Fold:
Amino acid sequence: MEIKIKYFTDKIEPLRYIAGKSDWIDLRAAEEIEMQAGEFRLIPLGVAMQLPEGYEAHVVPRSSTFKHFGIIQTNSMGIIDETYCGDNDQWFFPAYALRDTVIHVNDRICQFRIMAHQPAFSFAVTEHLENPDRGGHGSTGKA
Structure:
């Protein structure tokens, strides 16, 4: 499958898929960003893409993003669908700083994967699910 990509800067490394390591692809800050604790910013990622019809990108922080930069993604997970594909539809990372921080151009701050849209289904209302209970929220692996 091929995805058309537009770069808004030549200062970030080109996207690449690392076979055998992960099926997530890292995204990088396209600008130098200074943030103070409590500040919100849309961090430009320097790319726009034309995803195939029926697909969307799921964007989340890298596991080291908070440790290195002290930022969290404000919407927990970003969803970019195939209609966000115009010439100026640059991708952004919505960040909230929990401490003062500096993010440099080309720093890897988030990652994405391409997923097919959820198939259509319907809900069937029932009084009982006829399955054993697991023990409540947060109970996996607890005796």
